[in-house]
Amino acid sequence: MRAIRRFTVRPVLPDGLAALGELAANLRWSWHAPTQELFAAVDPERWDAVGHDPVRLLGEVSPQRWAELAADEQFAARLAQLRADLTSYLTGERWYQRAAAADPEGTWPRSVAYFSPEFGITAVLPQYSGGLGILAGDHLKAASDLGVPILGVGLFYRHGYFKQSLSRDAWQLESYPVLDPDGLPLSLLREPSGEATTISIRLPEAELHAHVWVASVGRVPLLLLDTDLEENPEHYRMVTDRLYGGNTEHRLRQELLLGVGGVRALRAYSRITGAPEPEVFHTNEGHAGFLGVERIRELVDAGDTDVATALEAGRASTVFTTHTPVPAGIDRFPRHLVEQHLSVAVPGVPVEQVLALGAEDYEGGDPGVFNMAVMGFRLAQRANGVSQLHGHVSRGMFNGLWPAFDEAEVPITSITNGVHAPTWVAPELSALAAAQGGDPDDDDHASFWAALAQAPAQEVWRTKRLLRERLVADARRRLRESWDKRGAAPAELGWIAEALDPDVLTIGFARRVPSYKRLTLMLRDPARLKALLLDPARPVQLVVAGKAHPADEGGKRLIQELVRFADAEDVRHRIVFLPDYDISLALPLYPGCDVWLNNPLRPYEACGTSGMKAALNGGLNLSILDGWWDEWYEPEFGWPIPSAESPALAGDPDRRDDLEAAALYDLIETEIAPRFYDTDADGVPGRWVEMLRHTWAALGPKVLATRMVRDYVAQLYAPAAGNARALAATGRGAAELADWKARVRAGWSGVRVEHVEPHGVGDAAEVGSEIEVHAYVALGDLSPADVEVQLVHGRVDAEDALVAPSVTPLTLVESYDGNRHRFDGTVALARSGPFGYTVRVLPTHPLLVAPAELGVVAFA
Ligand SMILES: *Cc1c(COP(=O)(O)O)cnc(C)c1O
Q1: Would the CB of 604 count as within 6 Å of ligand 1?
Q2: pLDDT band at residue 732, thresholds of 50, 70 and 90?
Q3: Is the shortest distance between the CB of 164 and ligand 1 below 6 Å?
Q4: Averaged over 792-811, what is the pLDDT?
Q5: Measured from the CA of 424, which atom of ligand 1 is nearest?
């Protein structure tokens, strides 16, 4: 029988233990080991049985056990202490408060809104599919640790992302268990009257309504919109059914809800709680981009603001982060569908102007398409990629939006991702760091990494073995469960008790399975892989996990290929595929591995973060030089797999895979395994442990999400808030900037470099000499204050193209009739060899971020 309705009855905790409910209601427990230990102590067996879910645990404790705990003074003391610790964490001054007070400019925002289609915070709240969501979760957690006043905005998916299992013949199966928000650490946003707050958006057929769930991520509120309400038509109730499911129209509705509905939810939250209105809006990937359109609508509807002015106000305070160099990873909607929806959803903004924001009106663009990333760049004054290499690739990929500029000047910067150490570092390693003087209560655990690097080699190695052992136990449990579902009889499964070995060199590989990540590269030469796994003296074992998108048949075939290999009797004790890669699998996986393998097709991995988590847990990376590894690789941190991405192999992906796989096997055979097994009399591999120490000391502090969030604050949030305040200060700032831009664009055809005169050296230039340049420039309807005239100079190649040139601004020295002017400047010739220069004119305004922002330039 199926129930027609379901709900969850919340437990009533005994007097004196009510604080357990408070600890369970704030997700800080998910990265606070002492709180987890307290929950485990409530009922250790049940804690494991409920998958370390405090809310479920509290609902299932027996009355006798409650009675015992209520009488346990020691337990009461621990509970009181942890509750006090949470209060002080939530209310105390942290890095942000101290640093903001010390900032002379004082532009640190009072509040930042962070929009993302997914958030991976804990396995208990499965609202993520992979890296993007985990990053968003780590961003909020690190912001909380640092005291950054941020709010998250996302959707509450009734089925989250799918759970993966395998059929007998190794085909991926998907299931979508339903989540009941009443059984999760969420509370409903309510009006002062007690009624649930409702957010509404007009759509072509009917109004779409949503409730707002609030999760407390430490100090950070996370608002999640949910459309599963009785007042919605049936198909609208399904808008938030699944993450990345459904057809194009379904996705457009989800993104409208996230962007437009998200801003409305924030407004309601501030109105009800008195929280400050966000000064900066950060969109994590293009999916939430409609937030910028909604903010334009708000300003236009409030009166006497036109769209151009509202756009300037909105842009100044918006940050857009792009996450993928894979064109298929970018959301593009049919233009007519966007037109149909936006004309009703944000009626104050003329729909042609919305359509123009997402138009691919550049060379090679598709006129029938609305591109969310393109809109993201146009609605945000500040944009970034997620590693240096990805910044470079993104500038090239989106150069078409700024065609007059070289790639290096495309206004997309980069901030490299990081990971939240308290979530990802095994408690045993944190304890080891603390024993060496690392301070676990520090805002960003800054002292941990140097402390770990000081730990005695034997201690490090003993801990690593423990972590390997724990992974082996978890893997065996998961294998048994998986084979159970695959229909194996218990008698067939005796081998699982011997699967994997806590003393064997363990290599991990876990990620989503799009083709560029090349799950099966390791199978390129099966005989060679087998030889590595079964080497009698220096064996290797592999733990593999990953989900293919439900619609990706190719990805499922790769999983099948891998699982079939791993199923073979001769190797199954040395290579395992663990289904359902998620946070709960990831947590013991990273610490249990000695080597973390990543072999994407360069440069498609925008950043990658799993290798960072491995590094913090005493793992060495073995990876193609892509994403973060390209930026921070050092020989002491692991091994680069040489990438065979030469143009000569561009049409021959098979050959490229052959070469890269061969390099991978060689590295394992000749360098990695010999070093791992080169142990001293105590069984400790000295050289290996040295590498772990270097990794902790030198790489540890870089890969932290706290470093990343501080970079966002200093490089993007505070400057964005500064610009937004400058625009708001006079009440006319945004209108003036919009007028100025319109005037500059209209007058730009009159801007010309008429004549350039070199002075000083002639053909006899030598190192140390100077050249002086006089540039005569006509400005038409513009004035000298509207422009900067620059001398662009440096090395030239055989075609006279300037290579990574320098820029020297020229100064106005004389004006003539007809709005003509002379600008002068000098450069010293610092280097021998071919040298060249040119002169260009760019618009300039104190509130522009980059010279390329308007896209216009005039050259000599
Ligand atoms: C860290 C993590 C990811 C992202 O890892 P990448 O290296 O970016 O692929 C995906 N899923 C889970 C469960 C993770 O913990």
Answers
A1: no
A2: confident
A3: no
A4: 93
A5: 15
Does residue 627 line the site of ligand 1, with CB under 6 A?
no
Q: What gap in Å lies between CA 288 and CA 331, rounded to an integer?
A: 11
Give the C-alpha separation, 521 to 519, whole Å. 6
Is this model's pTM higher than 0.90 or not? Answer: yes
583 in contact with ligand 1, CB cutoff 6 A: yes
Residue pLDDT, tens place only, 432-464: 999 999 987 788 777 899 999 999 999 999 999
Strand 540-545 and strand 575-577: the pairing is: parallel
Q: How far is the CA of 130 from the centre of ligand 1 (A)?
A: 6
Q: Are 189 and 260 in contact (CB under 8 A)?
A: no
How would residue 648 be classed by pLDDT, with cut points 50, 70 and 90?
confident
Tell me, in angstroms, the distance from the centre of ligand 1 to residue 590's CA.
Answer: 10
| Structure confidence at residue 762 as a pLDDT band (50, 70, 90) | low
For the domain bounded by 747-859, which CATH number is listed? Answer: 2.60.40
Number of neighbours of residue 664 by Cβ within 10 angstroms: 25
Q: Does domain 95-417+713-723 have CATH number 3.40.50.720?
A: no
Banded model confidence at residue 761, pLDDT cuts 50, 70, 90: low
Spatial distance between the Cα atoms of 552 and 313, rounded to a whole number of angstroms? 41
Q: What's the CATH number of domain 427-438+445-703, 3.30.565.10, 3.40.50.2000, 3.40.50.1820, 1.10.10.10?
A: 3.40.50.2000
The atom number, within ligand 1, closest to the CA of 131 reads 4
* Coil, helix or strand at residue 595: strand
Domain boundaries, the chain: 15-91, 95-417+713-723, 427-438+445-703, 747-859
Confirm or reject: Cβ of 581 under 6 Å from ligand 1.
yes
Q: Which is the closest atom of ligand 1 to the Cα of 607?
A: 8
Pocket test for ligand 1, best of 125, 134, 544, 617 (most atoms within 8 A of CB): 134
Query: What percent of the chain lies above the pLDDT cut of 90?
Result: 88
